[in-house]
């Protein structure tokens, strides 16, 4: 049975760890990396290391940033009355591309998932509730993904947020069930934001 040389095999195995990358995609990526110049390879390696060194989670919203608090949290032109709760930092970028949301964000860094050992503590729910208690928010948008875990997380948060004098809304059903915000186009996300519905008992 044919086997790649050890350094190439190791590279392919590391690339397979990327989300959505299977053996064939990892193999194509590895051969592409072998085809570029050493200068290009060094630039790529430097970019990865620089990102790992300089990027961290914002102390306020948990979004990714290189300054703390992040630019979205310190922007004086954004509304302090709207808070959009998302699962991952890349969901923020998906919503920002629509150009219609001008409030603040809070990133959970995951969803409730007992099987994966993710409970309220791992999602920093106490930090979120403290932020809402101290803030001036009038509406909280639960923008978790329309998956079973995303839905469960949204309804769990909605039950906790009932004690606050805020309107709690959920993205409209323009988003396909079982998908991820990151895979939805800007028009779909825009319509979901515009058609968000209030969560009530």
Net shape: elongated
Alpha-beta classification: alpha/beta
Number of domains: 2
Question: What is the makeup of the main sheet?
Answer: 5 strands, mixed
Determine Rg (CA atoms, Å): 20 Å
Strand content: 5-15%
Number of strands: 7
Helix-strand string: HHHEEHEHEHEHEHE
CATH architecture group name of the largest domain: 3-Layer(aba) Sandwich
Quick gist of this model?
This protein has 201 residues and is α/β, with parallel strands linked by helices. The chain is built from 8 helices and 7 strands; from the N terminus they run αααββαβαβαβαβαβ.
Describe this structure in words.
Strand 5 (139-142), helix 7 and strand 6 (167-170) form a beta-alpha-beta unit. The mean pLDDT is 90. A five-stranded mixed sheet has the order 4-3-5-6-7. Strands 1-2 form a two-stranded antiparallel sheet. It contains eight helices and seven strands, in the order H-H-H-E-E-H-E-H-E-H-E-H-E-H-E. The protein folds into two domains: 6-54, Orthogonal Bundle (Helicase, Ruva Protein, domain 3); 69-198, Dna Topoisomerase Vi A Subunit, Chain: A, domain 2, CATH 3.40.1360.10. It has 201 residues and is an alpha/beta fold. The chain starts with 5 loop residues before the first helix and ends with a strand.
């Amino acid at each position: 049975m044919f086997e790649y040389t050890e350094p190439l095999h190791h590279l392919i195995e590391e690339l397979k760890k990327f989300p959505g990358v299977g053996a064939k995609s990892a193999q194509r990526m590895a051969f592409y990396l072998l085809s570029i110049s050493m200068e290009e390879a060094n630039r790529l390696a430097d970019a990865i290391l620089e990102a790992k060194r300089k990027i961290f989670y914002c102390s306020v919203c948990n979004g990714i940033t290189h300054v703390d608090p992040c630019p979205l949290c310190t922007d004086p032109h954004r509304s302090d009355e709207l808070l959009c709760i998302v699962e991952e930092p890349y969901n923020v970028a998906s919503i920002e591309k629509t150009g219609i949301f001008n409030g603040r964000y809070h990133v959970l860094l995951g969803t409730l998932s007992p099987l994966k050992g993710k409970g309220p503590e791992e999602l920093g729910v106490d930090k979120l509730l403290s932020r809402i208690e101290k803030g001036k928010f009038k509406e909280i948008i639960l923008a978790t993904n329309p998956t079973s875990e995303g839905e469960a997380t949204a309804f769990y948060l909605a039950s906790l947020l009932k004690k606050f004098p805020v309107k709690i809304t959920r993205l409209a059903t323009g988003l396909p069930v079982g998908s991820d915000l990151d895979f939805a186009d800007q028009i779909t996300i825009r319509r979901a934001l515009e058609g968000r519905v209030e969560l009530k008992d």
